[in-house]
Amino acid sequence: MWLFFTLTTTLLWGLAELFYKKGSHEECKYDHLRVCIMVGAVMGIHAVFTLLTADISYDPMNLIAYAPVSLCYIISMACSFFGIRFIEESLADPIENTAGAMCSLLCVIFLGEEIGAAVWVAIAIIVIGIIGVSYTEQSADVNRKQKLGKRLALVAFMMPFCYAIIDALGSFLDIFFLELETSPLIGVNADNIELVANVSYELTFAIVGLILFIFMKWKREKFELPKQKDKLLAAVCETAGQLTYVYAMSGNGAIAAPILSSVCVVSLLLSRIFLKEKLTKKQYLFITIIIVGILMLAVLEGE
Q1: To 5 degrees, how large is the angle CA 26–CA 209–CA 13?
Q2: For the chain, what are the domain ranges?
Q3: Which of 168, 192, 167, 193 is nearest to 179 (CA)?
Q4: Can you give the pLDDT of all 303 residues of the chain as single tens digits?
Q5: How many CA atoms lie within 13 Å of 247's alpha carbon, on the beta-carbon side?
Q6: Is the pTM of this model over 0.85?
C-alpha cells in the first residue's frame, strides 16, 4: 500500500501546484493572500477533524512551541504564492524543490554532519542548474523585465529561491522538533509526535489565514468564495497530500522519497499540458539539470 500512497501523494501535490498557478491572477494585488486564506481554512478543518478523531491528547501550548517551524513553512508558501502570480510554475517548482539540498547544507554547516562525495556531486549539479536558470533570465528570449518592469521581475524571480531557503530552514528546525530527546513539544511520544506537529502547523496556518482574511476585509478587498474554486482545489490537494504522505513514508521511505521528489516533474508536465506554459530551450535544459540533481540527492539520502 505504501507505493499507492506514494504515487497518490506525488499526484496530489503536482495537482496542487497546477491549481495554485491556475488560481493566481497577476493583476490582483492580494491574490497570493487569498491563496493563503484558502489553504489555512482547509488545513484548519483538517486539524479539527484530526483532533476529534485521533486520540493524541493535544496540548494547545504546542501551537507556540512549534511556531518557529510552522511560520517557516507558512512564510515560504506565501513567497511561492506571490511568485507564481508572475512566473511560470514549470520554472518555479524545480527551484523550490532545491530546499532539500539547502537543508543538507545546513546540516553540514551547523550540525557538522558528513555527507558522501556523491551527495556533493548532486548538490553541485543542482547549483549548476540554478546558475543556468538565473542566466536565462538575462536572455532576450525571456521578456519578463519588459512585461513586469525590472524591479518586479527580479522580486518575482527571487520568490522560488526565498521559498527554498525558508522551507529548508523549517526542515532543519524539524530535525530538533521531531526528535523526542530535543523536541520542545508537550505531551508527545514516539507514536504521536509527527501528528502533534502537523496539527500545530495546520492550526497555525488557520490562524494566519483568519488574520489575513480580516486584513482583506479591512482593505475592503473582495473575497467571493465561488470565484476561489481553483484555490480551494489547490488547498484540498495540498492537505490531502500531507495525509497520504504520512502513509507513504511509513512503508518504504528509502524508495518513497525519490518518487516524491519527482513531484516537480509532474508539476512541469501538468503545467505544460493544461496551462500551455512554454519555456525557452535553455530554460528546459537547466531545469532538467536541477531535476536530475534533486532526484539523485533523493536516491542517495534514501540509501
Answers
A1: 65
A2: 2-302
A3: 193
A4: 778 888 999 999 999 999 999 988 888 888 999 999 999 999 999 999 999 998 888 999 999 999 999 999 999 999 999 999 999 999 999 999 999 899 989 999 998 988 889 999 999 999 999 999 988 887 756 778 788 888 998 999 999 999 999 999 999 999 999 899 999 999 999 889 989 999 999 999 999 999 999 999 998 888 777 778 999 999 999 999 988 887 776 666 666 767 778 888 899 899 999 999 988 899 999 999 999 999 998 888 766
A5: 14
A6: yes
